[in-house]
Design goal:
The structure holds 2 protein chains of 2 kinds. Chain A is mainly α. Chain A contains 16 helices and no strands. Helices cover 74% and strands 0% of the residues of chain A. In chain A, helix 1 crosses helix 15, helix 10 packs across helix 11 and helix 12 runs antiparallel to helix 15. In chain B, strand 12 and strand 13 form a beta hairpin. The chains are: A mainly alpha, B alpha+beta. Bound molecules: adenosine-5'-diphosphate and magnesium ion.
C-alpha cells in the first residue's frame, strides 16, 4: 500500500472525528436554542423575582430604612412570622378560602356548568357560558361595587329590599353578617369561568364514538360522566385544580375591595400586601412582606407537588412524539 | 330478534339524513347498509341504537316499538371504526364494562369475558391498555366488548375501515363466521361494496338519506333497479352510454354515433321508442373480439388476472376486461363484443331501470 493512500485515510479519519465533535456540540446546543425564548421568559419574569423576594426577606428593608440604611437580619422576619399572633388565624382563613372557593366554584361549579352546557343544545350552552364570562370581563372595582350594593345595610341593598325582605327575613348589614359567604361567592363567580372554558373544550373534544359507546354499553347519563367523561378529562382537571389553587393563594384584590380583610377575612396574600405595600401607618415593611410572600411561594410549591403525585402526573405526559435532536 | 323500520326519518335543519326508510330485518339476518359517505348510514344506525330520536317514523324490535326506549335498555352491541375502547381501562375492564353496568354477578362476568377473549384470540392481552395494542387487536377487543353482554342486535359502523387490506380480509371472514355461529341479528354499515356484497344476506343501498334498494347481493348486482345502484355496485364500475333503441327488421338495435348493438327482444322492447335512454354494461360483459363494434385502445390498466382496457368509440369510452395474453396496446384498433344478456337499460330522467321494477 502506498504512503499517500494511508495519509489520505488518516486525513479522512481526522475529518470524521472533527465532524463528530461538531455534531455532538450541536446536538447539545440546538435544544437549548429552541428553548431559549421560554427560558429567558421564565428566568426574567418568574425566577429572578422569586430570588429578589427571598433576598429582601432576609433584610429589615422598609420605608423607614429606605434603600440605603437597611441591614441583613437573617431569618428574623421568618421567626417573627412563626410567633406572630395573626399567623394562625390568617393561615386558617387562607386555607378555608382556597379550599371552599376551589371546590365549590373554580373546579366544582366549573365542572357542573361545563357538563350541563355540553348536554343541552349547543347554542343554548354557548349562550349560557358566554353569560358566565361577564363577571370576568367586568372591571373588579365595578363588579365588587355591584356586590356591595346587593349586600348593603338596611334600608338599602338588593337582598334587603327585593330578595329576602319580601320573604319576611329581617334586614341586616349582610357583609359583616356573612363575610365568607360573599368573599367566596364573589371570587367563585369569576373563578369558575376559567375551569368552565377548559372543561367545556375538553369534553367537546372527546371523540363522539366514546360518548355513543358509553350509552350503548348501558350507561345512564350520570354513569357516562362518572366512568367515561371524568377519566378522559383527568389532565385538564389536574391543570385547573393546580393552577387555580396557586392563583387563589395569591389573589386578594376582590377581598381587598370587598372587606379590606375586615370581619375576619384577612388572607395571607392580603396580609403580605398590606405589610409590604399599603401599610396604614405609612411604613411599608418590605422585608417582612417579602418573607410573608416567600412562605406563600413555599406553600404553593408544596401543593403543586402534592397534586402531581395525587393525579399521577407522570402517567399523563406522553413520551415526546419527536425523536431527540 | 327482528328489527323493523317504518317510515323512519331524521332531519337536521334542511338535511334529511334518513328519509322515509322502510325495511325489515329477520331474526339472525346479516344486513349491510351500503352507500357513499354522508348518505345517512351512521345516522340510521344511531337511530336504531337510540342515540338519536327519530323526527318521524317508528323503530320496532320484534313487535315492540322502541322509539322511547333509552339506549341502555335496548341490549345492543356496537363496534366502531375508531374502536372507541376506553383508554383508561384495561382490555379486561373494557370487556366487562357493559356487564358491570348491568350488575352481572362477578363470576358470570369473568367467565363470559374469558370465553369471548378465547373466541377472539385476545386472552393474552387482558391486562394491557388499548394504547398498547395494534389496530387489529383493538378491533378484536371492541368486538369482544360488543359480544360479552350477549346482545340481541349487533351494530357495526365501518369497523374495518382503519385496518390494512390483508387484515380487513381476514376480519371480514371472521366477523361473518362469528355472526353466523352466534345467530345474532346484525347490521353492518359500510361504504365498501365488496364488504357489503361478501358479508351480507341482504344489502340496503342508501343515497341522500333514502333507501334505494334492499335485496340480496346477487340481485343487486344482476338486476340494479336504479342508475345509482348500477354505478355504485361492482368493481370496476359499469359502463354507461347514452343510446337510442330502435326496431329494424324485427331486431332491436341500440344506436349512437359509431355504435350499433343488437339487443335481445325482451330487453330491447322495454326501451324502444323512448328516445334517448342509458345503456349500462359491466366491463366483464364486454370482450375484445375478432369482429364487432370498432374502437381504439386508449388506456391499458393491468389488474393482474385481467387487463382493464379503456376503448374509445367515437366520443365515448367503454371499459372492457381482457386476457393479458392478448397484449392490447395503446392505439390498437380493436373490436368489442357485448354480452347482450347482461345489458341494463335506464330512463335518463327518472334514473329508474327500464327492465326491473
Ligand atoms: N349531529 C348532526 N348534526 C347535523 N347534521 C348531521 C349530524 N349527523 C349527521 N349529519 C348530516 O347528516 C348526513 C348523513 O350523515 P351520516 O349519517 O354521518 O352519513 P354516513 O354515515 O353515511 O357517512 C350528512 O349530511 C351529515 O352532514
Ligand atoms: Mg358514517
Amino acid at each position: 500500500m502506498s504512503e499517500s493512500a494511508s495519509t489520505a485515510r488518516a486525513l479522512e479519519v481526522g475529518k470524521m472525528r472533527r465532524l463528530q465533535e461538531k455534531t455532538s456540540l450541536r446536538s447539545l446546543l440546538s435544544p437549548l436554542l429552541f428553548m431559549a425564548p421560554a427560558i429567558v421568559l421564565v428566568v426574567v419574569f418568574f425566577f429572578i423575582p422569586v430570588v429578589i423576594v427571598l433576598v429582601i426577606s432576609l433584610t429589615d428593608m422598609s420605608t423607614a430604612t429606605g434603600f440605603n440604611n437597611w441591614k441583613w437580619v437573617q431569618f428574623d422576619n421568618y421567626s417573627r412570622i412563626a410567633t406572630h399572633p395573626n399567623t394562625l388565624p390568617v393561615l386558617r382563613n387562607t386555607l378555608m378560602y382556597v379550599a371552599l372557593t376551589l371546590s365549590l366554584f373554580n373546579v366544582g361549579m366549573a365542572l357542573v356548568i361545563a357538563l350541563l352546557t355540553t348536554h343541552i343544545p349547543r347554542r343554548s350552552g354557548f349562550l349560557f357560558r358566554a353569560l358566565w364570562l361577564l363577571p370576568r370581563l367586568t372591571p373588579s372595582v365595578v363588579y365588587i361595587m355591584m356586590w356591595k350594593y346587593v349586600a348593603a345595610d338596611a334600608p338599602y341593598g338588593i337582598l334587603n329590599q327585593h330578595l329576602l325582605g319580601p320573604l319576611g327575613i329581617p334586614p341586616t348589614n349582610w357583609l359583616p353578617a356573612q363575610p365568607w359567604f360573599f368573599v367566596i361567592l364573589t371570587n367563585g363567580f369569576i373563578g369558575a369561568s376559567f375551569g368552565m372554558v377548559i372543561f367545556t373544550s375538553a369534553i367537546e373534544s372527546i371523540h363522539r364514538d366514546y360518548m355513543v359507546a358509553a350509552l350503548v354499553d348501558g350507561c345512564s347519563l350520570w354513569q357516562r360522566i362518572r366512568y367515561v367523561i371524568l377519566p378522559l378529562i383527568r389532565w385538564p382537571l389536574l391543570f385547573v385544580t393546580t393552577y387555580q389553587t396557586l392563583s387563589l393563594l395569591t389573589s386578594f384584590e376582590q377581598i381587598l375591595l370587598l372587606t379590606e380583610g375586615q370581619f375576619g377575612t384577612e388572607v395571607w396574600s392580603l396580609w403580605a400586601y398590606q405589610r409590604a405595600l399599603s401599610n396604614y401607618w405609612g411604613n411599608f415593611q418590605w422585608g417582612f412582606g417579602a418573607a410573608l410572600a416567600a412562605v406563600l411561594v413555599l406553600i404553593g410549591v408544596v401543593m403543586a407537588l402534592v397534586y402531581m403525585r395525587y393525579f399521577q402526573f407522570n402517567q399523563l405526559v406522553h413520551e415526546p412524539k419527536i425523536e431527540a435532536l | 330478534m327482528k328489527v323493523k323500520l317504518e317510515n323512519l326519518t331524521k332531519r337536521w335543519g334542511h338535511v334529511y339524513a334518513a328519509h322515509d326508510i322502510n325495511l325489515e330485518i329477520n331474526d339472525g339476518e346479516f344486513v349491510a347498509f351500503l352507500g357513499p359517505s354522508g348518505c345517512g348510514k351512521t345516522t340510521t344506525l344511531l337511530l336504531i341504537a337510540g342515540i338519536y330520536k327519530p323526527t318521524a317514523g317508528r323503530i320496532l324490535f320484534d313487535e315492540r316499538v322502541m322509539n322511547q326506549v333509552p339506549p341502555k335498555n335496548r341490549n345492543i352491541g356496537m363496534v366502531f371504526q375508531s374502536y372507541a375502547l376506553y383508554p383508561h381501562m384495561t382490555v379486561y375492564e373494557n370487556l366487562v364494562f357493559p356487564m358491570k353496568l348491568k350488575r352481572t354477578p362477578p363470576a358470570v362476568m369473568k367467565e363470559r369475558a374469558r370465553r369471548v377473549a378465547e373466541m377472539l384470540g385476545i386472552g393474552q392481552l387482558l391486562d394491557r391498555r388499548p394504547g398498547q395494542l395494534s389496530g387489529g387487536q383493538q378491533q378484536r377487543v371492541a368486538l369482544g366488548r360488543a359480544l360479552t353482554k350477549q346482545p340481541d342486535l349487533l351494530l357495526f359502523d365501518e369497523p374495518l375501515s382503519n385496518l390494512d387490506a390483508r387484515l380487513r380480509l381476514s376480519m371480514r371472514a371472521e366477523i361473518k363466521r362469528l355472526q353466523m355461529d352466534l345467530g345474532i341479528t346484525a347490521i353492518y354499515v359500510t361504504h365498501d361494496q365488496v364488504e357489503a356484497m361478501t358479508m351480507a344476506d341482504r344489502v340496503a343501498v342508501m343515497k341522500d338519506g333514502r333507501l334505494q334498494a334492499y335485496c340480496p347481493p346477487d340481485e343487486l348486482y344482476d338486476r340494479p333497479r336504479t342508475l345509482f345502484i348500477a354505478g355504485f355496485v361492482g368493481n370496476p364500475p359499469m359502463n354507461f352510454l347514452e343510446v337510442e333503441v330502435v326496431q329494424r327488421d324485427g331486431v332491436y338495435h341500440a344506436l349512437r354515433a359509431g355504435f350499433d348493438l343488437p339487443l335481445s327482444a325482451e330487453r330491447g322492447k322495454q326501451a324502444a321508442g323512448r328516445g334517448s335512454v342509458i345503456l349500462g354494461v359491466r366491463p366483464e360483459d364486454v370482450m375484445i373480439a375478432e369482429e364487432g363494434i370498432t374502437g381504439e385502445v386508449y388506456v391499458v390498466e393491468p389488474l393482474g388476472r385481467d387487463d382493464l382496457i379503456d376503448v374509445r368509440i367515437g366520443d365515448v369510452h367503454v371499459h372492457a376486461l381482457a386476457d393479458p395474453n392478448r397484449r392490447c396496446r395503446v392505439g390498437d384498433r380493436v373490436h368489442l363484443r357485448f354480452n347482450t344478456q347482461k345489458i341494463q337499460l335506464f330512463d335518463p330522467k327518472t334514473e329508474q331501470s327500464l327492465l326491473w321494477t
